[in-house]
């Protein structure tokens, strides 16, 4: 904390000194020392009613405000969709899809007067503090806002969706939106729909360069101090939460007198929800991942194939000098990445040019660069 506090103090002191240098020694004399504030001085001469600092806000660091605004909108929209998935398809049926909100659903069964979103706050706020103190994690404003806004959205949607406080405490699906969304007889369907909605919401949040915190922080602590891989740590935490739900909800611990208590089979629906959520989340973040890598090895120069790649596919490839291990004869090897739709055409072209060519086609996990995705920025949240 000492380092964090001194760092923030340094930022404010440095910015103040920088501003003083402009205000007292640069701006009054119309000096233009380049950069954003140099441009701001020039614009101030054209529009004297607007201060130099105000122009600095407009042009600061050439940041694309459109991207920033769309990113924040994505966070709020994603968190709202995530909250809706829980409120309308998960919470009323006591499904426990792991994570902070899965644990919150279990605790709500023990303490019905406290909303699921409120339990979410009880988990998220301490975890955010622990993340800073123990891990020194640079969470960023986006993750903090997402972690705090999601429980709020969950509570607000719950209040708007149930007609009475008693129905809200019971999370009665027969009274959810006037009973129009009661899916008590279709638990498989509601677990899948809820998982898809949650996965879409989480995916939008992650694509907006944030996370919803929660069990991610627990997994990072386990990774650092218990040397458990992050993915296994997430699985371990989710497994503990589902087990907790099985004891409390499935076997009625803490609420034994409730004759309508759901049975243990709800845990299986919870596991289905966890799996579907992970798949949808990966799809929203990464897309279909249908890119393919081709290695083409031939004894002859594949000029016609080069033309086909450059002109017909409008792509490029890398020629690698190679030789056969047994024959020691020089060969040409082409390395290229194409979409799955282009594989059939390029294999046909290879057959036309050199039927004896050796061809390997494999999946490309990810592709970055011209014609593909941009490389991620530093600190950007990466899926899987």
Q: Helical segment tally?
A: 14
- Kindly name the structural category: alpha+beta
Let me know the average pLDDT. Answer: 83
What helical percentage do the residues reach? 55-70%
What sort of overall outline do the alpha carbons produce when their principal axes are compared?
Answer: flat
Report on the biggest sheet.
4 strands, antiparallel
State the strand order across the main sheet.
Answer: 2-3-1-4
Work out the strand percent. 5-15%
Number of domains: 3
Describe the structure concisely.
With 384 residues, the protein is an alpha+beta fold. Helices cover 60% and strands 8% of the residues. The chain has a four-stranded antiparallel sheet.
Task: Describe the structure in your own words.
By secondary structure, this protein is of the alpha+beta class. Helices cover 60% and strands 8% of the residues. It has a 4-stranded antiparallel β-sheet. Strand 2 and strand 3 form a beta hairpin. The longest helix has 26 residues, at 65-90. The two termini are 30 Å apart. The model has no long low-confidence stretch (mean pLDDT 83).
